[in-house]
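User: Hi! I'm working on a homework problem where we have to compare a predicted structure to a textbook description. Could you give me the structure for the chain below?
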Amino acid sequence: TTTETTVDNATSQDASSEGGNAETATTQAEQQETGEQLSCYVSMDAGDGWEGSGKYYNQYTVSIHNNTSSDIKNWSIKIPVAGDVTIDSSWNGTFSNDGGTITITPVEYNGTVAANSTLADIGFIVVASSKSDIDAMASAAELYVDGQLYVSTAVDEGQNNTEVTATETTE
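Assistant: Happy to help. Predicted structure tokens:
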């Protein structure tokens, strides 16, 4: 199952002006219903999950999609987690877990997401005592550029889409 999370520009601005960003995330499926192609977004593919020794495990593959004509540098991905979710193993990224958020940053060889391309094959396996804690992760990933939440916009295929910006959000 692939769940892709993006941030809608108008929704994000409205939420920020109200002092929060809880309402900013929209799923890629919702965007596809309108036929829009998004400028940049992160997707998480939930691979096989299994249970062992009273714990639940799941493997995720993460991709960053860049549909603009500019490279993206200084990216990170933040995934809110609940409960006791921990990282069992990871690849193609630097991973940290502060107990409430898994943060993925680039390694030396994948720090740039080239224009009009997808950076794929970032992955990790998580373990938790509750399957629901693991399941909640897939739709919660957010893309950050230069430390700020990336606000994705629809790509106008007739235009030169060179703008790659981030918008500060408040909590």
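For your comparison, note the following. Residues 50 and 57 are 5 Å apart (CA to CA). The chain is about 10% helix and 45% strand. Good luck with the assignment!
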